[in-house]
Amino acid sequence: MKNWIIKEEWFNNQEITANENRFLCGNGYLGIRGALEEFQKEKLPAVNLSGIYDRVGDGWREPLNAPNPLYTRMKVDGEYYFLPEKEPVSHTQELDFKHGLVRRHTTFHTKRGSVTVESEHFASMADCHLIGMRYIVMADFHADLEIQTGIDGDVWDIHGPHYDDVRFEQKDKRILVDAITHEKKEHVCVAEQYRTQAPHEHKTKEEERRSLHRICVVTDINKPVVIEKMAAVYTTNDCENPQSASEELVAESMELGYEKQRKRHIDCWEKLWSTSKVEIEGDEEAEKELNYSLYHLLSIAPYHAESQSIPARGLSGQTYKGAVFWDTEMFMLDFFINTQPKVARTLLKYRIDTLAGAEQKAKSYGYSGAFYAWESQEGGYDACSDYNVTDVFTNRPMRTYFKDKQIHISGAVVYGLIHYVNSTGDTSILYEGGAKTILSCAMFYDSRMIERVHSGVYELCDVIGPDEYHERVNNNSYTNRLAGFVLTEAVRILSQSREDEKLAEALGEADCEYWEKRFKEDTEKLVQKKPGTNGVIEQFDGYFQLEDTTVDTVRSRLLNEKEYWGGAYGVASDTQIIKQADVVTQLVMFPEDFSRKIAWDNWNYYEPRTEHGSSLSACMYGILACDCENPDAAYPFFRKSAAADLKGGGKEWAGNVYIGGTHPAAAGGAYMTAIKGFAGITMEDGQIKAHPHLPDGWEKMRFSIFYQGERYEICVTANGTEIKSMGHYKISGHCGDF
After folding, report:
1. Is 468 a catalytic residue?
2. Number of C-alpha atoms within 13 angstroms, CB side, residue 475?
3. Helix intervals (H) in 497-541
């Protein structure tokens, strides 16, 4: 690929928050929104941390944003120059997404001449606790320059403030911050230190919740003043003494120097891309969009952990409470299984290790087994509220049932586990809690079913499928099919346990014979939707009796552009208009169930009735179109998924609440559309097979896949496919080391 740079060559005040998502960098432990160094909290800068949460009052629990060690402003001749307060002569911001480097170049006119600021920063992929920044100022006159750089502890929060106390300590050119959370009194510690070659006067400056170095110098004409700084972030989740750890890492990093730390970081990115990039000949724009999407997935993968998952908005902030949704297993996991299998294992270990939380949730509703959190935080705690939507007319919270009724989440966990085992051959995860997880999810569905009197069939009633515009429906086709899959896999695991002592031990004291018989009966009796005479599968009981109209007609009924389409009184609730792919997702997941003709009949029926109100929707229509040998119909859905964060345009605000951020599930969906859809990659009889459906103009695709203990390089053309083994690997290591 030739061009790994995205760039904006102007400053638009209306694009600040969108650009902070576009220019995000991260390393799985932390994500740095692409804010300019001078921005304070009203502009939404953030160093978002993974896996640590806090709650204040009645607000939602959400992940923490660390004190910002990149904060920097400058004065020239005693006057501040920074965006957006001063209009620039020129401004460029760019991201090198091959190497995770964010840069800016801004020139201001002053009373005596021009001053230019250049900067670069990165979240180190070589050490997840480390952040590096270089800040350069150059003037075409002898400027009286003051650079203020340090740590901003006045942190942006959606439902905060989360730090009851922010303590600063200064040691020469080093600043330390110890921020103490509200809920659990956890410590988030940040240390930073700078170095400059210019002769200067150094002082410190204390502001409320902000500690700054003041670097004062008279510049030489057109000679740069260069400041290099390193920062480290640790929390009490990481170690016993995070303040000492952050201080020690900064000292070590400064000794090594910015350039060497930068090179270590770049080397890690090169290793990641060696197994992750997708090359497309014949469509440079699509190639760039796809790999930019993959950059976002690589930036938020928890390399540092053995058991952790990825939130729905990645590490772009506190939106959606930093919670883990079904997005991870259903939309992101494919990419990591194929390119970074150790990360895939880490994501699934998170679900295994939060099984107790899922079982507690099921018990709280009166069910057995494991009902996984719809919005999962640490320990499997379900952060989902009973009131997720505010009525725009009354300003009152509206009761929603995402937490209670989206029971397909447990099926997504099992689907991900089975997919991982089948692809990697790593059965050890079953012995480490995976088998017990599958059994417990099957027990949940068993306890959730009802049998109508004299009917002889089992049903799953009062549920919500992927289409959230229709709540509390009966026998959602997707949910029932997924529950049947879980029960079938549980039967297989129980049967295997008779021959596998380790598997039997992993299942604990479960009465395997009893549950195997019971799950078989469940599978046989559970309602499974069949196509009608027109080939279309009814999404749920009574769906075809709803008003059959168009998306535009329903949209025209809105009295307020922000009102919710679903729920009890939503404009779509009594119509066949759906939020996102539902039956279509089922057909993508289980292509063996029905013929291509049936699949295409459903594509043609449901797509015009889909509002695509979720970034998860487009990819499923893209994949199914490819399965039906119509790649040109798939292409616009692929581009929509791949460009979700590059082009923006999604909803960023709900009233006064920020709901923007990156869309890693759309990124994963773009990857699946490319690999499963256009390249037609399937696993058949223990081998990789390709059934290409390349769009018009695509000449060739090249990519790598890890499968069953080997790494393969694959080259797909319209005329044939080359699949070459590159040798064996072990699921271990970091940053692409296998």
Report:
1. yes
2. 18
3. 501-506, 512-525
pLDDT at 208 over 90: no
Q: What is the pLDDT of residues 541-562, one digit of tens each?
A: 999 999 999 999 999 999 998 8
Task: Tell me how many degrees the CA angle 201-205-206 measures, rounded to the nearest 5.
Answer: 165
pLDDT at 735: 43
Backbone φ, ψ for residue 667 (5° rounding):
-60, -45
The Cα 490–Cα 516 span in angstroms is 8
- What is the distance between the alpha carbons of residues 384 and 226, in angstroms, rounded to a whole number? 47
Helix axis angle, 242-256 relative to 258-276, nearest 10°?
100
Q: Report the distance separating Cα 466 and Cα 470, nearest Å.
A: 9
d(CA 542, CA 490): 30
Angstrom distance (rounded) from CA 265 to CA 425: 31
User: HSE (CB half, 13 Å, CA atoms) of 644?
Assistant: 32
d(CA 337, CA 189): 34
Closest by Cα among 313, 296, 334, 347 to 623 = 334
Peptide bond into 161 cis (omega under 30): yes
**pLDDT score recorded for residue 658:** 81
Give per-residue pLDDT as tens, 92-117.
999 999 999 999 999 999 999 999 99
With a CB cutoff of 8 Å and minimum separation 6, the contacts of 702 are 278, 279, 713, 714, 715, 716
Q: Is the dihedral of CA 16, 17, 23, 24 positive or negative?
A: positive
Cβ–Cβ < 8 Å for 342, 733: yes
State the pTM of this model. 0.96
pLDDT of residue 729: 80
CA atoms of 202 and 396, how far apart (whole Å): 53
The whole-angstrom distance between residue 619's C-alpha and the CA centroid of its chain comes to 15
Q: Please give the Cα distance from 663 to 296 (Å, whole number).
A: 9
Query: How does pLDDT run across 609-635, given as a tens digit for each residue?
Result: 999 999 999 999 999 999 999 999 999
Kindly name the residue from 468, 471, 489, 516 that is annotated as catalytic. Answer: 468
Phi and psi angles of residue 297, each rounded to the nearest 5 degrees, phi first: -65, -45
